[in-house]
Specification:
Helix content is 33%, strand content 23%. The chain is of the alpha/beta class. The chain has 2 domains: 15-57, no CATH class; 71-182, 2-Layer Sandwich (Nucleotidyltransferase, domain 5), CATH 3.30.420. The strands form 3 sheets. It has a 5-stranded mixed β-sheet with strand order 5-4-3-6-9. The chain has a two-stranded antiparallel sheet with strand order 1-2. It has a two-stranded antiparallel sheet with strand order 7-8. Strand 1 and strand 2 form a beta hairpin. Helix 4 (120-133) packs parallel to helix 5 (150-161). The chain is elongated.
Length: 187
């Protein structure tokens, strides 16, 4: 069968013809060895060059051990705040690895709502005080109560991230707790 499934007709010359009347060529064999050698070498070099570009783009930080620096001193300056956004108040509790229980309990605070809305300025002012005492702190975990509006959550996050301070006629934005993690209440 040749040319689309129809049987080839035999011409008076003894050669086969397809449906369109064209002579069907005899068996043709192709030697693809050289072509496969070239393609496999090309593929090898493409993969090698692609792998080299990926390795060059990876940013790596190698830890350095030094006798004069210690992470233990940094934990004294770090606390993580847990902020519960309730329907009537903002409840703040602190956790830390290097602080005593009394130091952490002293950071607990409840900020009641003013006219059914949180006092975002009171929250920011309180967080400025915590940041002054623990300057390396940057994480706050926010847990909203069921029914708290999306707008209040966003405004609380904004108040926790930075505060505009005025001193000597200059205004500057101070980063408070830029890493805000939103969590859910575990029941």
């Amino acid at each position: 069968m040749a040319g689309g499934g129809a049987p080839a007709a035999e011409a008076p010359s003894g050669k086969k013809k397809n449906v369109f009347g064209e002579e069907v060529p005899g068996n043709v064999t192709l030697n693809l060895t050289a072509l496969m050698d070239i393609l496999s070498n090309l593929l090898f070099f493409l993969l090698a060059s692609f792998g080299a570009t990926i390795v060059m783009a990876i940013n790596v930080n190698v830890p350095v051990q030094s006798a004069d620096k210690s992470d233990v001193a940094d934990t004294q300056q770090t606390v993580t705040l847990n902020l519960q956004v309730k329907k009537a108040s903002l409840e703040i509790a602190a956790s830390g690895a290097a602080q005593t229980n009394d130091e952490l309990m002293a950071l607990n605070k409840s900020i009641p709502y003013d006219a059914a809305k949180p006092s975002f300025d009171a929250l920011s002012d309180y967080l400025v005080g915590v940041k002054e005492k623990y300057p390396k702190s940057d994480t706050i975990i926010m847990t909203p109560e069921a029914g708290v509006s999306y707008e209040i959550m966003v405004r609380v996050m904004d108040a926790a991230r930075e505060k505009e301070l005025k001193s000597l006629g200059l205004r500057r934005n101070v980063k408070l707790f830029p890493t805000v993690v939103v969590s859910t209440v575990v029941k």
